[in-house]
Amino acid sequence: MSIDKTDFYQNLQVDNQRREASKAKSNDELGKDEFMKLLITQLENQDPLEPTDNTEFIAQLAQFSSLEGISNMSASLEGFGQTLASTQALQASTLVGRQVQVLADYTNLEEGKPVKGTIDLPQSSQEVFVAVYTGGGEYIGDIGLGSRDKGEVAFEWDGLDTDGEPFPPGNYQFRAFAYQDGKPEQQDLYLARNVSSVALNSGRSGGDIMLNISGMDKPVALKDVKVIN
DSSP assignment, residue 169? Predict the structure, then answer.
C-alpha cells in the first residue's frame, strides 16, 4: 500500500518557513555593536566634499550613548534582581522553626501553648466570635470577641475547656464569624502555623519566596503571611 507524503512535506516546508521568518525577525533587532558598525561605515564612506553635518553626527552619537546606557542598565537591573532575590531568601530562612499566621481553618494545638490567630474584618460588627471544633469536626465552643471595628482582630485560644481542663494536643478547626445586619457571616481567618522550610520559587513570575508550612499541602508565598509570631 502506497502512502501519500505530499501533506507531510508541505507541512514540513511551512514549518521551515516559519522558523526562518522568526530568525529573520530576531536578526532585525539592532544592538549597540551593530549600531556602531553602521556609524563607522557611514564615516568611512562619506563624501569628503560633503561630510556628515556636525549636528547630525552628534545626534547619532547621542543615540548610540542612549542605546548603550539602556543595555547596561538592563544588565545592572537583572543582576540587582538576582541579588535581591538571594537576600530575601536568606532573610526568609530565619523564619524556619518560627510561627507565621496564614489563611487557614485548622492548626495544631501544642501542650502549654495557646493558638493565635487574626480575623480580617472588612467592616465593623456588633459581635465577633470564633467557633472551635475538634479535628474530626465536633463543636467545642466559642471564643467571644465582642463588638469590633473594621480591620484586623487578634485572638488567642488557651486550649482549655469550660472546667479549665486542657484539651489534648492535636489538630483543631476554627471558624470566624461576624454579625452583619443581625446575621453571622463567616470571615477570613489567619492561624499560626510552623514554618518547616523556605524556597525561592523561580518558576513563578517575580520569583516569590515560598514557605513550606507544617501540616499544609501547598506552600504559601511570603507576601501572603499576615503576622510573624
Answer: S
The CATH-assigned architecture of domain 98-228 is Sandwich (2.60)
The answer to whether the beta carbons of residues 148 and 176 sit under 8 Å apart is: no
What pLDDT, in 10s, does the model give residues 61-87? 666 566 666 666 666 666 656 666 667
Q: Which residues of 184-219 are buried (b: 16+ CB within 10 A; e: fewer)?
A: beebebbbbbbbeebebeeeeeebbbbbebeebeeb
Amino acid in position 76? S
Neighbours of 170 (CB within 10 A): 11
CB 102 within 8 A of CB 217: no
Contact 181, 81 (CB under 8 A): no
The dihedral formed by the CA atoms of 31, 37, 40 and 45, expressed in degrees to the nearest 10:
-120
The residue ranges of every structural domain in the chain are 9-43+55-94, 98-228
Q: Are 107 and 193 in contact (CB under 8 A)?
A: yes
Q: Taking the complete model, does pTM exceed 0.85, yes or no?
A: no
Grid cell of 153 as nine digits: 482582630
